[in-house]
């Protein structure tokens, strides 16, 4: 097999872990597999570097931050290459730049424009294990960039896509669970999940994998695996793919929670859309993507309007609301979470929405906005009901 | 003025020191000077990285070591650039590669082939303070290289040479002394020293500056200054230049000591040169440059032969001596040092050699091999006499 393996920060936190990965790579090579490693910075390195930069007042200097942070991955990959090489398996490290990751010039959140694999391919042809720095690239002018949140996963998936290889993302969790096990210890590990379900889980808050890398895997049909580093039993982990085998058995794949929700409301607007137009222009200018928007006509022809966003975004909006010079006050309610029931079975199994609502009703859990897509049903509930809702829905759908 | 300032590891060891350098740069810019900084890795960073690599068995992997070690300087320069920028002085960091340092492919001891200053010049033209990573460069193929011992000094001098700027090397010592103050506390600081004297002092063991950077400064006539970081009083430091003003006053500039000397001897060789030819071929193969060689004809037409090298080199030679299958045994004497009296005045002031020898004689200090050059007289003495020799010569020449 041809596998891109990605190791996160906790998996390479010390020299013993690096030695163990080197040993694993040796076994993979001896079994005839081709391996590319993608690695993050060791342990808490990135946080420590950010602390130093902050102390110097430089954390907002994106160009220098990118060059600073990129050293973290560079150290990991050289140490990994040395450790593998010391076991008699030829290995070489490549920084983002050396591996041909050409990105946009947007420091701190660059997009990959292309991967020029000439150099990488030469080393693969020589039979070497190539160890690539995650999270980083460079512009055509040799300026060092980083890819933003989840960047190392993106590096790994992009390489796998470019080469047509499989991509194994190793982390400190044993795959994807139906519900975050910290909230619901009885949660089951999923053997398989579709790209679409995973993206819903990710963008709705499950947090094990950024939407961006799943999106990329989906676009290029990269077979993804998510599991614990150095766990030999691959049944302990989750494959993410176009179509899973267990479509019929399990209408619901899981539940994800997005915390810290705010409901923003404006009541008794005239039905001319003028204020809403101005409000949306402001919100777009603040670079905020609203989550859910709802408006209702009242019996006397006015409009009650509400939208949902996270608390931080609502802070930003309230800080700038004066710019509108509006006579319509915006009120904010805090203390909500968004609960989403996710599964490709939702569109083919009827009655799932009804079962969700009746379960919540039976336990006196109040829900606000409800939205649904082909593969998800989302409800805004009060923070205080979160744990109870997870438990009763987890029981009801056998998650 | 246009100044390249180089800061060594101890001068950038913590964030407070980085802040202080940033403040100093601000004052320099406000006084109308143009500044380029060259920085080493912070404090003990390089040693720590070497330890990690050694623990993984990778310290002999020169290619990976270069990429690993180069991250040390990269961190310093980004932090420095942030700190300067945070004071409102536009600054940018450039890695060796970004600064156009194109080197040979010899990892761990690469030679600078050229500096393509296009990128650097653009930032200078924009009025920025440019902070350059010392010690590193890259091949035409983007492979990261390091310049070996004293590499950051070489970076600074090479930049100054290319741009025609002055070069201030900041370290933790207050300039060049007549004798190492740890051996002779009464030693005087030199206000000025010539390139040639400095090279003699360096290659004969004074250790404050590598010969290579002085050689480069001499070749391009770069005005060098060596002093303590952030010391405002520039009279506390040493200028290194083509010709000093005090040529006439001071025939002797200083004394330098090279420790751990071995004398190797072969006696009663036939006078046909065969054995010596074989021996020198072996020594060249072992990549050893012999220091001093001497042969004497005995009264019965045989040759007594001896040479001097440091203890480590003598170990290497003895380990390989069997390859010669010689019937002439090599004996080794340990416990010597090489003491050198250095000064451009030596060639113009007569009687200096006589004064050195009579001073040593008067204190019963025995000397072995004596060699001399235009600007130095060197003697091999016993380790046990080192301190006494330094003191009596220091007194005699008022050093």
From TrEMBL, chains A, B:
Positions that bind substrate: 46, 73
Biological or metabolic pathway of the protein: Amino-acid biosynthesis; L-threonine biosynthesis; L-threonine from L-aspartate: step 1/5; Amino-acid biosynthesis; L-methionine biosynthesis via de novo pathway; L-homoserine from L-aspartate: step 1/3; Amino-acid biosynthesis; L-lysine biosynthesis via DAP pathway; (S)-tetrahydrodipicolinate from L-aspartate: step 1/4
Keywords: Amino-acid biosynthesis, ATP-binding, Diaminopimelate biosynthesis, Kinase, Lysine biosynthesis, Nucleotide-binding, Transferase
Binding site for ATP: 6-9, 171-172, 177, 182
EC number: 2.7.2.4
GO molecular function, one term: aspartate kinase activity
Ranges in a coiled coil: none
BP terms from Gene Ontology: diaminopimelate biosynthetic process; homoserine biosynthetic process; lysine biosynthetic process via diaminopimelate; threonine biosynthetic process
CDD domains in UniProt: AAK_AKii-LysC-BS (cd04261), ACT_AK-LysC-DapG-like_2 (cd04923)
Keyword Transferase: yes
Entry GO CC: cytosol
Pfam families tied to this protein: AA_kinase, ACT_9
Reaction equations catalysed: L-aspartate + ATP = 4-phospho-L-aspartate + ADP
Residue ranges constituting the ACT domain according to the UniProt record: 264-344
Family: Belongs to the aspartokinase family.
Summary of the function given for this chain in its UniProt record: Catalyzes the phosphorylation of the beta-carboxyl group of aspartic acid with ATP to yield 4-phospho-L-aspartate, which is involved in the branched biosynthetic pathway leading to the biosynthesis of amino acids threonine, isoleucine and methionine.
NCBIfam families noted in UniProt: asp_kinases, PRK06635.1-2, PRK06635.1-4
Name under which the protein is recorded: Aspartokinase
């Amino acid at each position: 097999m041809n596998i891109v393996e990605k190791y996160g920060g906790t998996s390479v936190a010390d020299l013993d872990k690096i030695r163990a990965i080197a040993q694993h790579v040796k076994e993979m090579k001896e079994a005839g597999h081709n391996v590319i490693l993608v690695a993050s910075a060791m342990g808490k390195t990135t946080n420590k570097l950010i602390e130093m930069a902050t102390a110097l007042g430089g954390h907002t200097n994106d160009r220098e931050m990118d060059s600073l942070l990129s050293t973290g991955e560079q150290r990991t990959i050289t140490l990994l290459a040395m450790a593998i090489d010391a076991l008699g398996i030829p290995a070489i490290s490549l920084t983002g730049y050396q591996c041909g990751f050409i990105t946009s010039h947007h420091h701190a959140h660059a997009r990959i424009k292309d991967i020029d694999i000439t150099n990488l391919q030469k080393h693969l042809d020589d039979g070497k294990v190539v160890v690539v720095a995650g999270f980083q690239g460079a512009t055509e002018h040799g300026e060092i960039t980083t890819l933003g949140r989840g960047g190392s996963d993106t590096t790994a998936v992009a390489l796998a896509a470019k080469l047509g290889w499989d991509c194994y993302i190793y982390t400190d969790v044993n795959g994807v669970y139906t519900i975050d096990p910290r909230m619901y210890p009885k949660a089951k590990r999923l053997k398989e999940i579709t790209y679409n379900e995973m993206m819903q889980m990710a963008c709705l808050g499950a947090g094990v994998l950024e939407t961006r890398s799943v999106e990329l895997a989906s676009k290029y049909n990269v077979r993804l695996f998510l599991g614990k580093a150095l766990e030999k039993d691959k049944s302990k982990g989750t494959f993410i793919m176009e179509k899973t085998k267990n479509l019929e058995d399990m209408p619901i794949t899981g539940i994800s929670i997005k915390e810290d929700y705010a409901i923003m409301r404006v009541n008794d607007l005239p039905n001319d859309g003028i204020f809403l137009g101005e409000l949306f222009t402001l919100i777009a200018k603040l670079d905020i993507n609203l989550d859910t928007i709802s408006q209702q006509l009242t019996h006397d022809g006015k409009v009650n309007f509400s939208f949902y966003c996270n608390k931080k975004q609502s802070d930003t909006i309230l800080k700038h609301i004066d710019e509108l010079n509006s006579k319509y006050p915006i009120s904010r309610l805090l203390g909500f979470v968004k609960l989403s029931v996710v599964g490709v079975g939702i569109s083919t199994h009827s009655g799932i929405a009804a079962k969700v609502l009746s379960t919540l009703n039976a336990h006196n859990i109040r829900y606000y906005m409800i939205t649904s897509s082909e593969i998800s049903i989302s409800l805004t509930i009060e923070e205080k009901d979160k744990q109870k809702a997870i438990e009763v829905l987890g029981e009801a759908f056998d998650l």
